[in-house]
Design brief:
This protein has 817 residues and is α+β, with helices and mostly antiparallel strands. Helix content is 25%, strand content 24%. The chain contains 15 helices and 43 strands. The strands form 10 sheets. Strands 1-2-3-4-5-10-17-16-13 form a 9-stranded antiparallel sheet. Strands 6-7-8-9-18 form a 5-stranded antiparallel sheet, with no helix packed on it. A hairpin with a 3-residue loop joins strand 4 and strand 5. Helix 6 packs antiparallel against helix 7, helix 6 runs parallel beside helix 8 and helix 10 packs antiparallel against helix 11. The longest helix is centred in the middle third of the chain and has 20 residues. It is globular, with a radius of gyration of 28 Å.
């Protein structure tokens, strides 16, 4: 199959040549095509980042150009297994070899430039297997939100793109999945002919293309152009021609990266200008003060200092740190203006309130959460949980080993787990690692800053949460208690920490909407008929499964949180505090009486064993002051020192309880950290560690900033604490790709379309923190604000919210000092 991509401009003089550049993709002004620069690893094949992809006027509008086995494949449908990719600059071609091993089907995708077009071919050495006839076809998916309010031509006949899915569907036998029927068929499609920013023309040389709407099967589906591969043929078996509306004169508008929240008077204030390398010089940047009567007063101007190239853009920095007068300001540069932002001493004092007031309560499982007239969700998962089957690999990185490691048989109800805990990220599972991370972060925030804010009523007796209704108890303590209840319940139920609790099947896992409607809330009774309800039990097997394989790393992580929680809860709930500490100490002794349980799977069975034990030893030492925990901290120090970037903030917490020799060791590690940190300052213009994996890096940046605060408080002569503000500036808008704050409802312009429980409504949850900028390889920074379903960019991370609460309080403390 062959595809060609060409600028579809009105005048031939405006056409330009697509060039295979030294980064391995085809580029022209305003129109780029990637050919397997990104590919799936077999874990999450619904990430919408693989195959042939189109970046049109700095917006990735198409992806997943590849051979697929259905018209609108979902997240768990098979994808071709990648074998090799060869780039030939001399010929301007890219060859990619892939296969579906289960079908013994191999194929090659060949791309070559041809003037202002790109030709992409599917080449077969052997005919299509019989089992794939009528199934295998070349798909190219287009971002729905890029085409909302637009139309398309199919062989010259005009059609509107549907704003909401409403395709006809195939009629299939019970148990099979119906497929959407094509919206239109034709040899030539022109998408959005009225808008050069997203106009793409697709024409087939020898077959019929169908346009499908993937949203009929899943809300995160895309529009799909698809042509079946022919049976009985070899060689180049199918050809398309595509054309994009590139423009040799197009220049991407400059982005002024800055803090949407604003700045404290004495902190460093640097805006990062992200410019198209083809853009002419932007001149001077101005800082304008906005006066109460609406007038603007220029208070500072300077030419931004060039930094250099990073990713696909050119950067310079505008340092206006000398301006410290409180007020409201705007930055103007290169024809762009920021939203107004304040300079104020108390700028961080309330920045964490939406996260504690709204986001964390909304995530509370096993509770009804009410906000004025709105019910965020009902009392969810009252029927938790059934024992997961053995030797079972589940989805979302859960698995059960060869034994249950519990008193229960597979499928049997495990009583007592339907209490406490937070729903994990944008999903509806309880991941134990998330639970203990949140508890510890909130305990540390309480101990270090004493945030006594009270705006929420939590009533565990009635299983109800009311937002904006104070009850006389600090909200952070109530959140700590809620997480602790779930951790304690696991020990009460099975005697150890468990991996987590998750939906039993994909149909439930894909649930969108009120968490309370995901199950019937009644414990499953296999003696009842399907749908039958009797004596408070149900014949519907919709209860979540508990994955209970024992892991020493999970136990250490959990008892670290329980030991910490016992300190925070000793006044609010003395009985729970006492029980938490007893579990922590008993489990510690038990773990040291046998070889560790090393069961591991995905990211649900704990972090590195030594790190988790180090954290547990420190929390138990801080709680009990017992020498045996100090001895274990000392014994584990060599491991912690060799992983100091990850262990530093916890190592510092042990300083008050350890001998002077330990402090000397930690100080030496801090000095080495400072040297390494200085060497990284030229890595990117934002001066923070930006990761480039399949999950965006806000979590790493927040941890980096928390580490800076911990080391600064312990060794202010070594670490100056400025990285605390650098991390928050990044989170609030000083980052690649845009200037949005990644904390919803915090800052003048923030994430308003995100991957939360309400993502189907293209909405947000105040205080949620998203993963942020994801680097689409090799060089495109992306965070979609018009499409919530990119989990690697937009999925709220529950424990990141807790870390953010800590970090914002840390910044406020530094400003106060």
């Amino acid at each position: 199959m062959t595809a060609a991509i060409a600028p579809a401009t009105a005048q031939p003089a405006a056409q330009q040549t697509l060039t295979l550049n030294d980064k391995g993709y085809y580029a022209s002004r305003g129109f780029d095509v990637l050919v397997f620069s990104n590919r799936y690893d077999g874990l999450f094949s619904g990430a919408k980042m693989s195959g042939v992809e189109i970046i049109d006027h700095d917006r990735r509008i198409a992806t997943n150009g590849d051979v697929r086995l259905s018209a609108t494949p979902g997240q768990w449908d098979p994808t071709g297994t990648f074998a090799s990719r060869k780039v030939d600059p001399a010929r301007g071609s890219i060859d990619v070899r892939l296969a579906y091993p289960d079908y013994r089907f191999a194929y090659r995708i060949h791309a070559r430039q041809d003037g202002d077009t790109l030709v992409v071919s599917v080449v077969l050495d052997q005919p299509l297997p019989k089992a794939l006839e009528g199934k295998a076809g070349f798909n190219l998916e287009f971002l729905p939100s890029a085409y909302f309010h637009h139309s398309y031509f199919a062989d010259g006949v005009a059609h509107p793109f549907p704003l909401y899915p409403s395709s006809g569907m195939t009629h299939v036998a019970a148990g099979q999945r119906p497929e959407p029927l094509p919206l239109a068929r034709g040899h030539r499609f022109v998408l959005a002919p009225d808008d050069a920013r997203v106009r793409v023309t697709v024409a087939s040389a020898d077959g019929t293309i169908g346009l499908y709407d993937g949203r009929d099967q899943a809300q995160n589906g895309w529009f799909v152009l698809r042509q079946l591969l022919p049976a009985g043929k070899t060689g180049t078996v199918l050809q398309w021609t595509l054309a994009g509306a590139g423009d040799p004169d197009w220049v991407r508008p400059t982005v002024i990266g800055h803090s949407q929240l604003g700045y404290a008077p004495g902190q460093r204030k640097i805006a990062v200008m992200e410019r198209d390398p083809a853009s002419p010089p932007g001149g001077q940047a101005q800082l304008l003060r906005v006066l109460p009567d609406g007038r603007e007063q220029a208070v500072f101007s300077a030419t931004p200092v060039p930094w250099g190239d990073y990713l696909r853009y050119r950067y310079s920095r505008f340092d206006f740190s000398r301006v410290a007068t409180p007020g409201l300001y705007v930055i103007a540069y290169d024809g762009q203006r920021t939203a107004p932002f304040p300079i104020a001493k108390n700028i961080y004092a309330a920045a964490w309130h939406p996260t504690l007031d709204i986001y964390l309560p909304e995530q509370m499982d096993h509770m009804r959460v009410v906000e004025a007239y709105r019910v965020w969700h009902g009392d969810s998962h009252r029927d938790d949980a059934r024992q997961a089957p053995v030797n079972h690999e589940h989805f979302d990185l859960y698995a059960q080993g060869p034994t249950t490691d519990s008193p229960y048989q597979p499928g049997e109800h495990i009583p007592g787990l339907n209490v406490g805990g937070w729903l994990d990220a944008g999903d509806y599972d309880i991941r134990t690692q998330t639970q203990y991370a949140i508890v510890r972060a909130l305990v540390h925030a309480w101990e270090d800053f004493r945030p006594a804010r009270d705006t929420t009523t939590v009533d565990w007796a009635t299983r109800r949460v009311d937002l904006h209704q104070p009850d006389g108890v600090p909200d952070i303590l109530q959140q700590i208690k809620h997480g602790t209840l779930q951790l304690v319940a696991q020990y009460d139920a099975v005697g150890h920490a468990i991996d987590g609790i998750i939906a039993p099947d994909l149909a439930q896992y894909r649930h969108l909407g009120d968490a309370a409607t995901k199950t019937d809330g009644l414990v499953y009774d296999p003696s009842l008929k399907a749908g039958e309800v009797k004596d408070g039990r149900s014949g519907t097997p919709d209860d979540r499964w508990a994955f209970t394989s024992q892991s020493s790393a999970l136990d250490y992580g959990s008892i670290a949180a329980l030991a910490a929680a016992s300190r925070a809860l000793h006044e609010l709930d003395p009985a729970l505090a006492k029980k938490s500490l007893a579990i922590a100490e008993t489990t510690w002794d038990r773990e040291h009486a046998h070889a560790p349980h090393l069961y591991q799977h995905g990211n649900t069975t704990g972090g590195p064993l030594q790190t988790e034990e180090f954290d547990a030893a420190i929390e138990l030492l801080a709680t009990t002051r017992q020498p045996k925990y100090a001895a274990r901290v000392a014994a584990l120090w060599p491991w912690a020192a060799s992983h100091f970037i990850f262990t530093a903030s916890e190592a510092v917490r042990a300083l008050p309880y350890m001998p002077a020799s330990y402090r000397r060791h930690v100080e030496a590690a801090a000095r080495d950290y400072a040297r390494r940190r200085a060497a990284l300052r030229r890595a990117n213009p934002y001066d923070v560690p930006i990761t480039e994996g399949g999950w965006a890096g806000n979590g790493a940046i927040v941890q980096f900033a928390i580490t800076a605060y911990a080391l600064h408080t312990a060794f202010p002569h070594i670490i100056d604490g400025k990285d605390v503000f650098r991390g928050l500036d990044y989170l609030y808008g000083t980052h690649p790709g845009s200037d949005l704050s990644f904390v919803s409802a915090v800052g003048a312009r923030s994430k308003e379309v995100a991957y939360g429980h309400n993502r189907a409504d293209f909405s947000f949850i105040a205080g949620g923190v998203v993963p942020g900028v994801l680097i689409v390889k090799p060089d495109f920074p992306e965070n979609k604000e018009d499409w919530p379903y990119f989990w690697g960019e937009n999925e709220y991370v529950t424990d990141l919210g807790a870390d953010y609460i800590y970090l914002a309080n840390a910044a406020n403390a530094l400003v106060g000092h």
